[in-house]
Amino acid sequence: MIKGFHHAALSTPDLKRCLTFYTEVVGCEVAYEFGWPKGSADADKVTGLAGSAANAAMLKLGDSFLEVFEFSSPQPKQQNGERPVCDNGITHIAVEVKDINNEYARMKAAGMQFHSEPMAQESGFMVYGRDPDGNVVELIEYT
After folding, report:
1. How far apart are CA 67 and CA 20, in angstroms?
2. Contact (Cβ atoms closer than 8 angstroms) between residue 73 and residue 52
3. Which among 2, 9, 64, 97 has most CB atoms closer than 10 A?
4. pTM attached to this predicted model
5. 33 and 56 in contact (C-beta within 8 Å)?
6. Domain of 66?
7. CA 121, CA 105: separation in Å to the nearest integer?
8. pLDDT, tens digit, for every residue of 63-107?
């Protein structure tokens, strides 16, 4: 029986910068940190990588989690920081907010880049912005 989604995961070239953004700007808390050295057979098996090594953290926001990895091996391909949301793969993560205009202004002042100002939709308001690695983060307010 599937109970529901537990977490999504991101890979970043700079774990510290990413954690700073998601804790200080988005409001996540670090649930725990972990990692593994190169040569961990179990980590290689589960990731499907050879010679993997990474540092990581699990972040908590409300009842949701976001896992963030910084791989030191194998050498990751750098992502296009302006990857279009139409490209295959995960297109964005969404965080539910209260008072989207206030959160938009606060996060924009903290340096987050947005595609537009918050826009009305049938169920409330939404806006897309980008984290420091270019991943799209949606702010959504249901009314």
Report:
1. 14
2. yes
3. 97
4. 0.90
5. yes
6. 7-73
7. 19
8. 999 999 999 999 998 887 788 888 888 899 999 999 999 999 999
